[in-house]
Automatic annotation (TrEMBL):
<dbReference type="Pfam" id="PF03808">
    <property type="entry name" value="Glyco_tran_WecG"/>
</dbReference>
<dbReference type="GO" id="GO:0016758">
    <property type="term" value="F:hexosyltransferase activity"/>
</dbReference>
<keyword id="KW-0808">Transferase</keyword>
<keyword id="KW-0328">Glycosyltransferase</keyword>
<protein>
    <submittedName>
        <fullName>Exopolysaccharide biosynthesis WecB/TagA/CpsF family protein</fullName>
    </submittedName>
</protein>
<dbReference type="InterPro" id="IPR004629">
    <property type="entry name" value="WecG_TagA_CpsF"/>
</dbReference>
Length: 272
């Protein structure tokens, strides 16, 4: 499935372009139903999430931006909500951040599935597997490999995924590495839904704490993460968030979606 198919399934207003990236604007339950249907129909679909950080990386990295063109993209966080409000007069129907949405989606999937986990440290991946098994005992969870592997190890990892042929492959290797790795190595021979999930395995393992529920409800989880990991995240949030909104204002003033690939002078960006 691509975004054109999504538009046909959900209507002309189902996509919002944020800095040239098409994001699916649907309610939580509709997103769960969509992914469930894609698995049932064995329709290979690459899935990821867009937040302010990803959008900033894609804005200056044409290779990453081009890879995202072939993903089904769900909205993640208050930044893209503000962008949608500025550009379209309405926020996204729901915040489909992967840390909350993916566990809920797997819990809601009644049919037993095989779920592969790739990324994080081995200890954190195994701890996340234990949490997943408790949350959604109907599924089979398998740790494929941690996220610290060399290019020489990749063929064996890809072969293991192909042999397992999971319904869902959760890839937790950070932006933009996880999306680029999926784009370069994973196709319909390997799984049905490869999903780029960022720090999900670290959160589930308990190695990285979640913000208190009250902060999450106030859409302030980013502030909690900045407080916990200021050295790693200050540039992403303190510099990145205002820069993202400035770029969105530029898109609004141009009155047309901008494309990172078409922007003169765009150079390679860096993820984490």
């Amino acid at each position: 499935m691509n975004m054109h198919t999504a538009r046909a399934a959900f209507g002309v207003d189902s996509l919002k372009s944020i800095l040239g990236i098409s994001v699916l604007a649907v309610h939580w339950d509709d997103a769960v139903s969509l992914l469930t249907r894609l698995i049932a129909e064995r329709r290979f679909t690459k899935v990821t999430f867009l937040n302010a950080h990803n959008a900033n990386v894609a804005y200056t990295d044409p290779v990453f931006a081009e890879a995202l063109d072939d993903f089904l993209i769900l909205p993640d966080g208050v930044g893209v909500d503000l962008a949608a409000k500025l550009l379209y007069g309405a926020s996204f129907p729901d915040n489909l951040n992967g840390t909350d949405f993916i566990p809920a989606f797997l819990q809601a999937s009644a049919r037993p599935l095989t779920i592969g986990l790739l990324g994080a440290t081995h200890v954190n991946a195994e701890a996340a597997l234990t949490q997943f098994a408790a949350l959604a005992a109907q599924h089979r969870f398998v740790v494929i490999h941690d996220g610290y592997f060399s290019a020489a190890q990749e063929p064996a990892i890809v072969e293991r995924i192909a042999k397992l042929r999971p319904d869902v492959l959760l890839v937790a290797m950070g932006v933009p590495r996880q999306e680029l790795w999926i784009a370069r190595h994973i196709d319909a021979r390997h799984c049905t839904l490869p999903i780029a999930v960022g720090a999900l395995l670290d959160f589930l393992s308990g190695a990285v704490p979640r913000a208190p529920l009250c902060m999450r409800r106030l859409r302030l989880e980013w502030l909690f993460r900045l407080w916990i990991e200021p050295g790693r995240l200050w540039r992403r949030y303190v510099v990145g968030n205002p820069l993202f909104l400035w770029r969105v204002i530029g898109q609004k003033l141009s009155r047309r979606p901008t494309s990172a690939r078409a922007r003169p002078g765009a150079g390679p960006g860096a993820g984490h």
